[in-house]
Design goal:
heterodimer; A: 239 residues; mainly alpha; MetI-like fold; 11 helices; 76% helix; flat; B: 265 residues; alpha/beta; six-stranded mixed sheet; four-stranded antiparallel sheet; 9 helices; 39% helix; binds adenosine-5'-triphosphate; binds magnesium ion
Amino acid sequence: MDLAFLADCFLRIVPGIPMTLALTALSVSVGLVFACLLAAMRLSGNTLLDWPARLHVFVFRGTPLAIQMFLIYFGLAQFEVVRTSVLWPYLREPFWCAFGALMLNTAAYGSEIVRGGLLAVPCGEVEAARACGMSGFLLFRRIVAPIALRRALPGYGNEIILMVKATSLASMVTLVEVTGLAARIISTTYRVFEAFAVAAAIYLAINFAIARAVAALEWWLSPHLRGAPPPAPDLRLAH
Amino acid sequence: MTAAPPALELRGIVKRFGALEVLRGISLAAAEGEVIALLGASGSGKSTLLRCINCLEIPDAGEVIVAGEAIVFRPARGGRVPADRRQVDRIRASLGFVFQSFNLWSHMTVLENVIEAPVHVQKRPRAEAIAEAEALLAKVGIAEKRHHYPAHLSGGQQQRAAIARALAMHPRVLLFDEPTSALDPELVGEVLRVIRGLAAEGRTMLLVTHEMGFARDVASRLVFLDQGRIECEGPPAALFAEPPSERFRAFVARHREEERLRGAG
Ligand SMILES: Nc1ncnc2c1ncn2[C@@H]1O[C@H](COP(=O)(O)OP(=O)(O)OP(=O)(O)O)[C@@H](O)[C@H]1O
Ligand SMILES: [Mg+2]
């Protein structure tokens, strides 16, 4: 084992971490907004909204992310309308193309997770809220959303981790992130194992941190699933 | 001077599920302080009637009048819908509904369950709502469980918490849908005791129950539903002594038999 080389690999790959994290954070957060929008469209009961949302999920879930990225970055430039459009300054940039593909992808998967969370809200609890005079946004904010969030969180944590790994495809559209830097080391040293092992370890560390953060959030949000609290002090005994 | 309107009045309530006509014109009035027990075989429409009162189901015809105010409906595709969502919310807030399956909000503690609607629907000050909730929880005998989540309570405790939640809204009328049917037999008594206490306070209540003895003790009037209609009604003592209808007599006999078998088993 050449520890010195491993350390060297590590130091040369570390500068790619911010790009990996930025792609993940941006696509996951914007993707979540779109995911909620798509889930709302699916659950609206309106065919004109439901249908485009279904189509989006069908397309982005059914095709490889790498091909989506190639289509957006290399493919769209073929068209004159794209090159003259207001979006061109963005579509020309590999970062925004990778972000777009990742974001649209996670929006598709995320919408199914959000939809599942919303459908898993027990209807008895919603009825109890209605029976108390709650409706509309109040009902959503106080009852539906908190319950759905708790149901969706484990699945969404999974999705975030998948997104971290998916950012490694961004190296194929010339972005310099963790995988791209590892590949660059290999192209000059031909030491495939060490470079990729270090890159893998970095992904592992990032995902470990994310998994722990999601687990902590879950723990914090679900005191009702843990053991009962100790009995409240009996006030009468205090006197 | 006109007499005060009944706390709750139903006029000709009809409810269909597709081709199935579950309620075929139910008219009923509950005076202030009256306790009405609704009896009927399984599937006779007792729950549906209760749910029509606070618009958890929309009656296809008929009127629901709470303290003199009729819920306004407007025609819609395939039937009708409430004309004013805010009126429905307001009327629902004035009717306490206790479900067979408790339906406490699982992500909130018992105390949070009880103050939720007073604080967020009725906009009462939080401190005041908490003080009142604690008094209500003491009244139903689960004060020491106030910081527990529903999952950590027995069925009887959950149902008592649900009753406290309903009481916290200061409802004009309490609606109970088989409040003890989901409970283990040894937990039924504690819940019935609470309901009995509420009846003694002079609260207006509509109570669906299979506990015949309890209905007889607590109710000022029994209403027997059969095939979507009120088959007979009257004061419990009179009704049991001299069943005015053959169907009611058969229903009571069947129940006695069941209770006897359960007692023997
Ligand atoms: N949402 C619904 N859709 C279709 N049919 C329904 C619905 N709710 C109730 N029903 C039917 O209406 C009839 C009356 O139901 P309901 O629940 O009111 O009876 P119940 O008297 O409360 O019975 P139980 O004593 O078993 O609770 C039943 O035949 C039931 O199948
Ligand atoms: Mg029922």
